[in-house]
Design a protein that fits this description.
alpha+beta; 2 domains; 4-stranded mixed sheet; two-stranded antiparallel ribbon; elongated
């Protein structure tokens, strides 16, 4: 966040806190005031100044973010609510909460973002991670199922051999070993490979997820930072 000094209080706020550095620099150049300057200011400090003397301090939003906020509000306002943002817009998503461990236990907070693109990227990355984990878990579960089925088949086979085969014949068969991989194991392995490919194509592609309707949707919420 950046603050700059204008000509005087009579023309508006003495200090303006810009959410975008390029906006602040452009504003100073446009004023062409020798004493005008741009400097960094912590957000919490700027907010305290604004609350104490709102007539002297003003937050200036980025126009791109204002347009994004008003576009969202047009959709949200259909269900009731304000149609236009006042001040600096902040973005979040419904049910988006963060757990933070404190001395008083776990506290839940709702994060807000000044840049909608940043929120978009975070939500998209979290969804991608969710499906990557799902693909991996499904693959591991299939492998465990094959191992469990193979062990069960071996136990049944060994018990049947012990009932019908003489010990001498069984020893010879054990020394010879298995002549190959059982057909059911090969079939199961091929099935696993096929299902893994399907998972990667369908679950691993966000465009296909959207086309098939399995992509999670997070309704966006817009509010004013000053409020």
């Amino acid at each position: 966040m950046f603050a700059l000094v204008t000509k005087g209080e009579q023309n508006g706020p003495v200090f303006r806190f810009f959410m975008d550095l390029s906006d602040a620099v452009s504003y100073v150049k446009r004023l062409n005031v020798p004493t005008g300057m741009v400097g960094a200011c912590r957000l919490d400090v700027a907010y305290e100044h604004f609350k104490e003397k709102p007539h002297m301090f003003q937050f200036v939003p980025n126009e791109k973010q204002v347009k994004a906020a008003n576009k969202l509000l047009k959709v949200i306002s259909r269900k009731g609510g304000k149609r236009k943002i006042d001040g600096v817009p902040v973005f979040t998503a419904q049910n988006l909460n963060i757990a933070i461990a404190t001395n008083d236990g776990i506290k839940w907070y709702t994060p807000y973002f000044f840049d909608k693109n940043l929120l978009d990227n975070i939500l998209e990355a979290s969804i991608d991670q969710h499906f990557r984990t799902m693909i991996q878990n499904r693959h591991m579960q299939r492998r465990r199922d094959v191992i469990d089925d193979s062990l069960t088949a071996e136990i049944v086979e060994e018990s049947g051999d012990s009932l019908f085969e003489p010990p001498e014949v069984q020893e010879v068969l054990d020394e010879m070993g298995h002549t190959g991989i059982p057909l059911n194991v090969l079939s199961k392995a091929a099935e696993i490979q096929f299902l893994d490919v399907v998972d990667k194509v369908l679950l691993g592609n966000k465009w296909l997820r959207k086309a098939t309707g399995i992509q999670p949707k997070f309704p966006y919420l817009v509010d004013s930072f000053e409020e």
